[in-house]
Write a structure and sequence with these properties.
mainly alpha, Growth Hormone, Chain: A, two-stranded antiparallel sheet, 75% helix, antibiotic resistance
Length: 504
Amino acid sequence: MSTPDTPHKEAAAGASPSEADPRRWLALTFIALAQLMVIIDVTIVNIALPSAQQDLDVSDSSRQWVITAYTLAFGSLLLLGGRIADYTGRKRTFMIGLVGFAGASALGGAANTFGLLLAARALQGGFGALLAPAALSLLAVGFTDPRERAKAFGVFGAIAGGGSALGLVLGGVLTEYLDWRWCFFVNIPIAAIAGTGAYMVVRETRAKGRARFDIPGVLLVTAGLFAIVYGLSEAETDGWGSGTVVGLLVGGALLLGLFAYVESRVAKPLLPLRVMLDRTRGGAYLAIGLAVIGMFAMFLFLTYYLQVVKGFSPVKAGLAFLPMSLGVVISGGGLSSRLLPKVAPRALMVPGMLIAASGMFLLSRIDVGTSYAAGVLPAEFLLGAGMGLVMAPAMNYATHGVRAEDSGVASAMANTAQQVGGSIGIALLNTIATTATGDYMKEHGPVTPQVQREGLVHGFSIATTYAAFILVGAAVLVGFLMNTPRPAPAKEGAEIPARAVHVG
Protein backbone atom coordinates (compact mmCIF):
# COMPACT_ATOMS: atom_id res chain seq x y z
CA MET A 1 0.00 0.00 0.00
CA SER A 2 1.08 3.50 -0.70
CA THR A 3 1.83 6.42 1.50
CA PRO A 4 -0.69 9.27 1.76
CA ASP A 5 -1.21 11.18 -1.45
CA THR A 6 0.79 14.28 -2.18
CA PRO A 7 -1.76 16.99 -2.98
CA HIS A 8 -1.66 19.04 -6.16
CA LYS A 9 -0.15 22.43 -5.52
CA GLU A 10 -3.08 24.39 -6.87
CA ALA A 11 -5.83 22.22 -5.46
CA ALA A 12 -4.19 21.61 -2.13
CA ALA A 13 -2.45 24.78 -1.29
CA GLY A 14 -1.83 25.19 2.38
CA ALA A 15 -3.73 27.60 4.51
CA SER A 16 -3.35 28.60 8.08
CA PRO A 17 -6.37 28.31 10.38
CA SER A 18 -6.76 32.07 10.26
CA GLU A 19 -7.47 31.84 6.50
CA ALA A 20 -10.12 29.16 6.96
CA ASP A 21 -13.80 29.86 6.38
CA PRO A 22 -14.93 31.90 9.42
CA ARG A 23 -18.39 30.33 9.20
CA ARG A 24 -17.15 26.74 9.17
CA TRP A 25 -18.55 25.86 12.62
CA LEU A 26 -21.98 27.18 11.73
CA ALA A 27 -21.75 25.27 8.45
CA LEU A 28 -20.97 22.12 10.43
CA THR A 29 -24.29 22.50 12.27
CA PHE A 30 -26.34 22.38 9.08
CA ILE A 31 -24.20 19.73 7.37
CA ALA A 32 -24.47 17.52 10.48
CA LEU A 33 -28.24 18.05 10.61
CA ALA A 34 -28.59 16.87 7.01
CA GLN A 35 -26.40 13.83 7.69
CA LEU A 36 -28.46 13.04 10.78
CA MET A 37 -31.58 13.00 8.61
CA VAL A 38 -30.02 10.42 6.28
CA ILE A 39 -28.80 8.22 9.16
CA ILE A 40 -32.13 8.41 11.00
CA ASP A 41 -33.99 7.36 7.86
CA VAL A 42 -32.18 4.03 7.83
CA THR A 43 -33.87 2.87 11.05
CA ILE A 44 -36.96 5.06 11.45
CA VAL A 45 -38.70 3.13 8.68
CA ASN A 46 -38.09 -0.16 10.54
CA ILE A 47 -40.42 1.03 13.29
CA ALA A 48 -42.98 2.36 10.78
CA LEU A 49 -42.94 -0.79 8.62
CA PRO A 50 -45.50 -2.93 10.50
CA SER A 51 -48.09 -0.13 10.41
CA ALA A 52 -47.34 0.74 6.78
CA GLN A 53 -47.61 -2.92 5.84
CA GLN A 54 -51.08 -3.19 7.34
CA ASP A 55 -52.27 0.14 5.92
CA LEU A 56 -51.14 -0.60 2.35
CA ASP A 57 -51.99 -4.33 2.48
CA VAL A 58 -48.42 -5.52 1.83
CA SER A 59 -47.59 -9.23 2.07
CA ASP A 60 -44.93 -10.54 4.45
CA SER A 61 -42.80 -11.69 1.52
CA SER A 62 -42.84 -8.21 -0.06
CA ARG A 63 -42.34 -5.98 2.99
CA GLN A 64 -38.53 -6.30 2.89
CA TRP A 65 -38.52 -4.28 -0.34
CA VAL A 66 -39.37 -1.13 1.60
CA ILE A 67 -35.88 -1.44 3.14
CA THR A 68 -34.17 -3.00 0.12
CA ALA A 69 -35.34 -0.36 -2.39
CA TYR A 70 -33.51 2.27 -0.33
CA THR A 71 -30.31 0.30 0.25
CA LEU A 72 -30.03 -0.78 -3.39
CA ALA A 73 -30.24 2.77 -4.73
CA PHE A 74 -28.11 4.25 -1.95
CA GLY A 75 -25.36 1.62 -1.93
CA SER A 76 -24.96 1.29 -5.69
CA LEU A 77 -24.87 5.03 -6.51
CA LEU A 78 -22.62 6.37 -3.75
CA LEU A 79 -19.36 6.42 -5.69
CA LEU A 80 -21.01 8.20 -8.60
CA GLY A 81 -22.53 10.69 -6.15
CA GLY A 82 -19.10 11.37 -4.67
CA ARG A 83 -17.56 12.03 -8.08
CA ILE A 84 -20.43 14.32 -9.07
CA ALA A 85 -19.81 16.32 -5.87
CA ASP A 86 -16.11 16.69 -6.63
CA TYR A 87 -16.49 18.04 -10.15
CA THR A 88 -19.81 19.88 -10.20
CA GLY A 89 -19.54 21.50 -6.77
CA ARG A 90 -19.91 19.98 -3.31
CA LYS A 91 -22.36 22.59 -2.03
CA ARG A 92 -24.47 22.32 -5.19
CA THR A 93 -24.58 18.53 -4.95
CA PHE A 94 -25.39 18.76 -1.25
CA MET A 95 -28.32 21.11 -1.91
CA ILE A 96 -29.69 19.00 -4.79
CA GLY A 97 -29.46 15.87 -2.65
CA LEU A 98 -31.15 17.59 0.28
CA VAL A 99 -34.08 18.98 -1.74
CA GLY A 100 -34.51 15.69 -3.60
CA PHE A 101 -34.44 13.67 -0.38
CA ALA A 102 -37.12 15.89 1.14
CA GLY A 103 -39.28 15.57 -1.99
CA ALA A 104 -38.94 11.79 -2.01
CA SER A 105 -39.84 11.73 1.70
CA ALA A 106 -43.01 13.73 0.98
CA LEU A 107 -43.91 11.23 -1.75
CA GLY A 108 -43.35 8.32 0.65
CA GLY A 109 -45.52 9.87 3.35
CA ALA A 110 -48.34 10.49 0.86
CA ALA A 111 -48.08 7.05 -0.81
CA ASN A 112 -51.40 5.25 -1.14
CA THR A 113 -50.01 2.18 -2.89
CA PHE A 114 -47.13 -0.17 -2.23
CA GLY A 115 -45.56 0.62 -5.61
CA LEU A 116 -45.53 4.35 -4.90
CA LEU A 117 -43.92 3.73 -1.51
CA LEU A 118 -41.18 1.64 -3.16
CA ALA A 119 -40.57 4.37 -5.76
CA ALA A 120 -40.24 6.95 -2.98
CA ARG A 121 -37.76 4.77 -1.08
CA ALA A 122 -35.63 4.27 -4.23
CA LEU A 123 -35.62 8.03 -4.83
CA GLN A 124 -34.60 8.62 -1.21
CA GLY A 125 -31.68 6.26 -1.73
CA GLY A 126 -30.63 7.93 -4.97
CA PHE A 127 -30.69 11.45 -3.55
CA GLY A 128 -29.05 10.19 -0.35
CA ALA A 129 -26.18 8.93 -2.53
CA LEU A 130 -25.65 12.55 -3.60
CA LEU A 131 -26.16 14.06 -0.16
CA ALA A 132 -24.06 11.80 2.09
CA PRO A 133 -20.66 11.98 0.30
CA ALA A 134 -21.13 15.69 -0.41
CA ALA A 135 -21.71 16.35 3.31
CA LEU A 136 -18.61 14.44 4.40
CA SER A 137 -16.40 15.99 1.70
CA LEU A 138 -17.54 19.50 2.70
CA LEU A 139 -16.21 18.77 6.17
CA ALA A 140 -13.01 17.26 4.80
CA VAL A 141 -12.14 20.40 2.83
CA GLY A 142 -13.61 22.87 5.33
CA PHE A 143 -11.67 21.78 8.43
CA THR A 144 -7.94 21.65 7.78
CA ASP A 145 -6.44 22.43 11.19
CA PRO A 146 -5.84 19.04 12.91
CA ARG A 147 -7.43 20.03 16.22
CA GLU A 148 -10.49 21.60 14.61
CA ARG A 149 -10.77 18.67 12.22
CA ALA A 150 -10.77 16.26 15.16
CA LYS A 151 -13.62 18.12 16.84
CA ALA A 152 -15.65 18.33 13.62
CA PHE A 153 -15.25 14.65 12.86
CA GLY A 154 -15.97 13.79 16.48
CA VAL A 155 -19.39 15.37 15.99
CA PHE A 156 -19.82 13.66 12.62
CA GLY A 157 -18.73 10.29 14.02
CA ALA A 158 -21.16 10.60 16.93
CA ILE A 159 -23.96 11.22 14.44
CA ALA A 160 -22.92 8.23 12.34
CA GLY A 161 -22.83 5.98 15.40
CA GLY A 162 -25.84 7.26 17.33
CA GLY A 163 -28.21 8.49 14.63
CA SER A 164 -29.57 5.01 13.97
CA ALA A 165 -30.63 4.60 17.60
CA LEU A 166 -32.23 8.05 17.53
CA GLY A 167 -34.18 6.95 14.45
CA LEU A 168 -35.68 4.08 16.44
CA VAL A 169 -36.73 6.45 19.23
CA LEU A 170 -38.25 8.99 16.85
CA GLY A 171 -39.93 6.27 14.79
CA GLY A 172 -41.57 4.80 17.87
CA VAL A 173 -42.93 8.16 19.04
CA LEU A 174 -44.23 9.19 15.61
CA THR A 175 -45.79 5.81 14.84
CA GLU A 176 -47.53 5.46 18.19
CA TYR A 177 -48.77 9.02 18.68
CA LEU A 178 -49.25 10.28 15.11
CA ASP A 179 -49.04 7.95 12.11
CA TRP A 180 -46.40 5.92 10.28
CA ARG A 181 -46.49 8.50 7.46
CA TRP A 182 -44.84 11.03 9.78
CA CYS A 183 -41.72 8.88 9.73
CA PHE A 184 -41.37 10.24 6.19
CA PHE A 185 -42.88 13.70 6.64
CA VAL A 186 -40.49 14.50 9.52
CA ASN A 187 -37.66 14.78 6.99
CA ILE A 188 -39.27 17.83 5.36
CA PRO A 189 -38.77 20.36 8.20
CA ILE A 190 -35.31 18.93 8.94
CA ALA A 191 -34.32 19.37 5.29
CA ALA A 192 -35.80 22.88 5.21
CA ILE A 193 -33.72 24.00 8.22
CA ALA A 194 -30.54 22.31 7.01
CA GLY A 195 -30.97 23.55 3.45
CA THR A 196 -31.70 27.16 4.37
CA GLY A 197 -28.74 27.32 6.72
CA ALA A 198 -26.36 25.56 4.33
CA TYR A 199 -27.36 27.84 1.44
CA MET A 200 -26.42 30.88 3.50
CA VAL A 201 -23.20 29.75 5.21
CA VAL A 202 -21.61 26.82 3.34
CA ARG A 203 -18.86 27.83 0.92
CA GLU A 204 -18.86 26.21 -2.53
CA THR A 205 -15.82 24.08 -3.41
CA ARG A 206 -15.02 21.86 -6.35
CA ALA A 207 -12.04 20.03 -7.78
CA LYS A 208 -9.89 21.84 -10.31
CA GLY A 209 -10.50 20.91 -13.94
CA ARG A 210 -13.37 20.03 -16.21
CA ALA A 211 -15.87 17.35 -15.16
CA ARG A 212 -15.14 14.13 -17.08
CA PHE A 213 -16.92 11.01 -15.88
CA ASP A 214 -15.64 7.48 -16.26
CA ILE A 215 -18.74 5.92 -17.85
CA PRO A 216 -17.43 2.30 -17.96
CA GLY A 217 -16.42 2.62 -14.31
CA VAL A 218 -19.84 4.04 -13.38
CA LEU A 219 -21.64 1.13 -15.06
CA LEU A 220 -19.36 -1.56 -13.60
CA VAL A 221 -19.33 -0.33 -10.01
CA THR A 222 -23.05 0.46 -10.00
CA ALA A 223 -23.92 -2.99 -11.36
CA GLY A 224 -21.44 -4.70 -9.03
CA LEU A 225 -22.64 -2.96 -5.87
CA PHE A 226 -26.27 -3.45 -6.94
CA ALA A 227 -25.70 -7.19 -7.36
CA ILE A 228 -23.97 -7.54 -3.99
CA VAL A 229 -26.51 -5.50 -2.00
CA TYR A 230 -29.40 -7.26 -3.76
CA GLY A 231 -27.82 -10.67 -3.17
CA LEU A 232 -27.32 -9.93 0.51
CA SER A 233 -30.93 -8.80 0.90
CA GLU A 234 -32.19 -11.97 -0.82
CA ALA A 235 -30.05 -14.15 1.48
CA GLU A 236 -32.38 -13.25 4.35
CA THR A 237 -35.31 -15.02 2.66
CA ASP A 238 -33.74 -17.49 0.18
CA GLY A 239 -30.73 -18.59 2.25
CA TRP A 240 -27.02 -18.38 1.48
CA GLY A 241 -27.07 -21.54 -0.64
CA SER A 242 -29.66 -20.22 -3.06
CA GLY A 243 -28.54 -20.18 -6.70
CA THR A 244 -29.83 -16.63 -7.05
CA VAL A 245 -27.89 -15.42 -4.01
CA VAL A 246 -24.66 -17.17 -5.00
CA GLY A 247 -24.96 -15.96 -8.59
CA LEU A 248 -25.55 -12.37 -7.53
CA LEU A 249 -22.67 -12.32 -5.04
CA VAL A 250 -20.20 -13.98 -7.40
CA GLY A 251 -21.33 -11.82 -10.30
CA GLY A 252 -21.05 -8.69 -8.18
CA ALA A 253 -17.55 -9.63 -7.05
CA LEU A 254 -16.46 -10.25 -10.66
CA LEU A 255 -17.91 -6.92 -11.78
CA LEU A 256 -16.07 -5.11 -8.97
CA GLY A 257 -12.84 -6.92 -9.92
CA LEU A 258 -13.29 -5.80 -13.52
CA PHE A 259 -14.02 -2.29 -12.21
CA ALA A 260 -10.69 -2.24 -10.34
CA TYR A 261 -8.90 -3.31 -13.53
CA VAL A 262 -10.59 -0.60 -15.60
CA GLU A 263 -9.80 2.04 -12.97
CA SER A 264 -6.10 1.21 -13.20
CA ARG A 265 -6.18 1.86 -16.95
CA VAL A 266 -8.37 4.92 -17.59
CA ALA A 267 -7.07 8.49 -17.49
CA LYS A 268 -9.86 9.91 -15.29
CA PRO A 269 -11.06 7.05 -13.07
CA LEU A 270 -14.27 7.17 -11.06
CA LEU A 271 -12.36 5.75 -8.06
CA PRO A 272 -8.61 6.36 -8.29
CA LEU A 273 -6.96 3.31 -6.77
CA ARG A 274 -4.66 5.60 -4.77
CA VAL A 275 -7.69 6.43 -2.63
CA MET A 276 -8.27 2.78 -1.70
CA LEU A 277 -4.69 1.51 -1.55
CA ASP A 278 -3.42 3.99 0.99
CA ARG A 279 -2.89 1.91 4.11
CA THR A 280 -4.47 4.39 6.52
CA ARG A 281 -7.58 5.07 4.44
CA GLY A 282 -7.96 1.39 3.55
CA GLY A 283 -7.88 0.57 7.26
CA ALA A 284 -10.47 3.26 7.95
CA TYR A 285 -12.85 1.86 5.32
CA LEU A 286 -12.36 -1.65 6.68
CA ALA A 287 -13.02 -0.43 10.23
CA ILE A 288 -16.27 1.26 9.22
CA GLY A 289 -17.52 -1.77 7.27
CA LEU A 290 -16.70 -4.32 9.98
CA ALA A 291 -17.89 -2.17 12.88
CA VAL A 292 -21.40 -1.70 11.51
CA ILE A 293 -21.87 -5.42 10.80
CA GLY A 294 -22.74 -6.04 14.43
CA MET A 295 -24.37 -2.67 15.09
CA PHE A 296 -27.02 -2.88 12.36
CA ALA A 297 -27.90 -6.45 13.27
CA MET A 298 -28.15 -5.45 16.95
CA PHE A 299 -30.82 -2.88 16.09
CA LEU A 300 -32.88 -5.57 14.36
CA PHE A 301 -32.49 -8.14 17.15
CA LEU A 302 -33.18 -5.79 20.03
CA THR A 303 -36.22 -4.30 18.31
CA TYR A 304 -37.82 -7.75 18.20
CA TYR A 305 -36.51 -8.78 21.63
CA LEU A 306 -37.95 -5.72 23.33
CA GLN A 307 -41.32 -5.74 21.56
CA VAL A 308 -42.00 -9.46 21.03
CA VAL A 309 -40.26 -11.04 24.03
CA LYS A 310 -40.49 -8.26 26.63
CA GLY A 311 -43.75 -6.71 25.39
CA PHE A 312 -42.49 -3.12 25.06
CA SER A 313 -44.58 -0.60 23.11
CA PRO A 314 -42.95 1.04 20.04
CA VAL A 315 -42.24 4.19 22.08
CA LYS A 316 -40.79 2.29 25.03
CA ALA A 317 -38.70 0.12 22.69
CA GLY A 318 -37.37 3.22 20.95
CA LEU A 319 -36.50 4.92 24.22
CA ALA A 320 -34.75 1.76 25.35
CA PHE A 321 -32.03 2.47 22.77
CA LEU A 322 -31.05 5.79 24.36
CA PRO A 323 -28.17 4.35 26.45
CA MET A 324 -26.42 3.44 23.22
CA SER A 325 -26.81 6.99 21.90
CA LEU A 326 -25.47 8.31 25.22
CA GLY A 327 -22.42 6.07 24.94
CA VAL A 328 -21.74 7.30 21.39
CA VAL A 329 -22.07 10.96 22.38
CA ILE A 330 -19.72 10.59 25.37
CA SER A 331 -17.02 8.66 23.52
CA GLY A 332 -17.42 10.01 19.98
CA GLY A 333 -18.39 13.62 20.58
CA GLY A 334 -16.33 14.06 23.73
CA LEU A 335 -13.44 11.65 24.25
CA SER A 336 -12.51 10.98 20.60
CA SER A 337 -12.51 14.65 19.59
CA ARG A 338 -10.10 15.45 22.43
CA LEU A 339 -7.74 12.53 21.85
CA LEU A 340 -7.75 12.36 18.05
CA PRO A 341 -5.19 15.18 17.56
CA LYS A 342 -2.90 13.63 20.20
CA VAL A 343 -2.84 9.86 19.60
CA ALA A 344 -2.50 7.46 16.69
CA PRO A 345 -5.90 6.41 15.26
CA ARG A 346 -5.54 2.76 16.21
CA ALA A 347 -5.05 3.82 19.84
CA LEU A 348 -8.73 4.78 19.76
CA MET A 349 -10.17 2.34 17.21
CA VAL A 350 -8.75 -0.93 18.55
CA PRO A 351 -9.94 -0.35 22.15
CA GLY A 352 -13.24 0.91 20.73
CA MET A 353 -13.84 -2.33 18.86
CA LEU A 354 -12.91 -4.40 21.90
CA ILE A 355 -15.29 -2.37 24.11
CA ALA A 356 -18.05 -2.86 21.52
CA ALA A 357 -17.26 -6.59 21.42
CA SER A 358 -17.63 -6.77 25.21
CA GLY A 359 -21.08 -5.20 24.84
CA MET A 360 -21.99 -7.83 22.25
CA PHE A 361 -20.75 -10.65 24.50
CA LEU A 362 -22.86 -9.26 27.34
CA LEU A 363 -25.87 -9.05 25.01
CA SER A 364 -25.40 -12.71 24.05
CA ARG A 365 -25.99 -13.71 27.70
CA ILE A 366 -29.55 -12.35 27.98
CA ASP A 367 -32.53 -14.71 28.16
CA VAL A 368 -36.32 -14.39 28.30
CA GLY A 369 -36.33 -13.40 31.97
CA THR A 370 -33.38 -10.98 31.93
CA SER A 371 -34.35 -7.49 33.06
CA TYR A 372 -33.66 -4.52 30.80
CA ALA A 373 -31.53 -2.79 33.45
CA ALA A 374 -29.37 -5.84 34.14
CA GLY A 375 -28.82 -7.08 30.58
CA VAL A 376 -29.74 -4.76 27.74
CA LEU A 377 -28.82 -1.34 29.18
CA PRO A 378 -25.15 -1.99 30.04
CA ALA A 379 -24.63 -3.92 26.78
CA GLU A 380 -26.05 -1.01 24.76
CA PHE A 381 -23.91 1.55 26.56
CA LEU A 382 -20.72 -0.45 25.97
CA LEU A 383 -21.57 -0.94 22.32
CA GLY A 384 -22.28 2.78 21.88
CA ALA A 385 -19.12 3.82 23.71
CA GLY A 386 -17.06 1.48 21.56
CA MET A 387 -18.65 2.69 18.31
CA GLY A 388 -17.98 6.31 19.25
CA LEU A 389 -14.27 5.56 19.62
CA VAL A 390 -14.26 3.80 16.24
CA MET A 391 -16.42 5.99 14.00
CA ALA A 392 -14.96 9.44 14.75
CA PRO A 393 -11.34 8.56 13.83
CA ALA A 394 -12.48 6.26 11.00
CA MET A 395 -14.53 9.03 9.36
CA ASN A 396 -11.63 11.45 9.85
CA TYR A 397 -8.96 9.22 8.33
CA ALA A 398 -11.25 8.00 5.53
CA THR A 399 -10.68 11.40 3.90
CA HIS A 400 -7.31 12.28 5.45
CA GLY A 401 -4.59 13.37 3.04
CA VAL A 402 -6.57 12.92 -0.18
CA ARG A 403 -6.13 15.20 -3.13
CA ALA A 404 -8.79 17.88 -3.35
CA GLU A 405 -10.31 16.35 -6.49
CA ASP A 406 -10.71 13.00 -4.66
CA SER A 407 -12.43 14.31 -1.53
CA GLY A 408 -15.96 13.44 -2.64
CA VAL A 409 -15.17 9.94 -3.83
CA ALA A 410 -13.14 9.23 -0.67
CA SER A 411 -16.17 10.32 1.36
CA ALA A 412 -18.39 8.12 -0.80
CA MET A 413 -16.16 5.13 -0.03
CA ALA A 414 -16.72 5.68 3.70
CA ASN A 415 -20.48 5.66 3.16
CA THR A 416 -20.24 2.66 0.83
CA ALA A 417 -18.30 0.72 3.48
CA GLN A 418 -21.00 1.54 6.03
CA GLN A 419 -23.83 0.55 3.68
CA VAL A 420 -22.29 -2.71 2.49
CA GLY A 421 -21.19 -3.60 6.04
CA GLY A 422 -24.70 -3.01 7.34
CA SER A 423 -26.22 -5.13 4.56
CA ILE A 424 -23.79 -7.97 5.26
CA GLY A 425 -24.47 -7.74 8.99
CA ILE A 426 -28.24 -7.92 8.66
CA ALA A 427 -28.18 -10.73 6.09
CA LEU A 428 -25.44 -12.84 7.71
CA LEU A 429 -26.43 -12.52 11.36
CA ASN A 430 -30.18 -12.72 10.69
CA THR A 431 -29.62 -15.99 8.79
CA ILE A 432 -27.57 -17.34 11.72
CA ALA A 433 -30.24 -16.25 14.21
CA THR A 434 -33.22 -17.72 12.31
CA THR A 435 -31.39 -21.03 11.73
CA ALA A 436 -30.51 -21.32 15.45
CA THR A 437 -34.11 -20.44 16.40
CA GLY A 438 -35.51 -23.12 14.09
CA ASP A 439 -33.14 -25.76 15.46
CA TYR A 440 -34.03 -24.84 19.05
CA MET A 441 -37.77 -25.21 18.48
CA LYS A 442 -37.30 -28.58 16.75
CA GLU A 443 -35.37 -29.86 19.76
CA HIS A 444 -37.80 -28.60 22.40
CA GLY A 445 -41.01 -30.38 21.54
CA PRO A 446 -44.37 -28.68 21.04
CA VAL A 447 -44.06 -25.06 19.95
CA THR A 448 -45.72 -23.10 22.74
CA PRO A 449 -45.54 -19.29 23.05
CA GLN A 450 -42.89 -19.74 25.74
CA VAL A 451 -40.80 -22.02 23.51
CA GLN A 452 -41.13 -19.50 20.67
CA ARG A 453 -39.78 -16.73 22.88
CA GLU A 454 -36.97 -18.92 24.15
CA GLY A 455 -36.09 -19.94 20.61
CA LEU A 456 -36.05 -16.34 19.45
CA VAL A 457 -33.71 -15.31 22.26
CA HIS A 458 -31.50 -18.36 21.64
CA GLY A 459 -31.11 -17.33 17.99
CA PHE A 460 -30.24 -13.77 18.99
CA SER A 461 -27.69 -15.07 21.50
CA ILE A 462 -25.88 -17.18 18.89
CA ALA A 463 -25.86 -14.35 16.34
CA THR A 464 -24.56 -11.72 18.78
CA THR A 465 -21.77 -14.10 19.81
CA TYR A 466 -20.68 -14.24 16.16
CA ALA A 467 -20.94 -10.45 15.98
CA ALA A 468 -18.67 -10.13 19.01
CA PHE A 469 -16.02 -12.34 17.38
CA ILE A 470 -16.26 -10.30 14.18
CA LEU A 471 -15.51 -7.15 16.20
CA VAL A 472 -12.54 -8.82 17.90
CA GLY A 473 -11.20 -9.90 14.50
CA ALA A 474 -11.74 -6.38 13.19
CA ALA A 475 -9.71 -4.98 16.09
CA VAL A 476 -6.78 -7.22 15.12
CA LEU A 477 -6.96 -6.24 11.43
CA VAL A 478 -7.27 -2.53 12.15
CA GLY A 479 -4.43 -2.68 14.66
CA PHE A 480 -2.23 -4.14 11.92
CA LEU A 481 -3.31 -1.84 9.07
CA MET A 482 -3.72 1.50 10.84
CA ASN A 483 -0.03 1.99 11.61
CA THR A 484 -0.33 5.76 11.20
CA PRO A 485 1.80 7.50 13.84
CA ARG A 486 0.57 10.00 16.37
CA PRO A 487 -0.31 13.29 14.61
CA ALA A 488 2.53 15.81 14.55
CA PRO A 489 1.78 19.20 16.12
CA ALA A 490 0.48 21.60 13.46
CA LYS A 491 2.84 24.46 12.58
CA GLU A 492 1.44 27.84 11.70
CA GLY A 493 1.40 28.34 7.95
CA ALA A 494 2.24 24.70 7.23
CA GLU A 495 0.73 22.99 4.24
CA ILE A 496 -2.38 21.00 5.03
CA PRO A 497 -3.58 18.20 2.73
CA ALA A 498 -6.91 18.17 0.95
CA ARG A 499 -7.29 21.91 0.63
CA ALA A 500 -10.16 22.73 -1.72
CA VAL A 501 -10.36 25.17 -4.58
CA HIS A 502 -12.92 27.75 -3.43
CA VAL A 503 -15.20 29.10 -6.12
CA GLY A 504 -17.83 30.89 -4.11
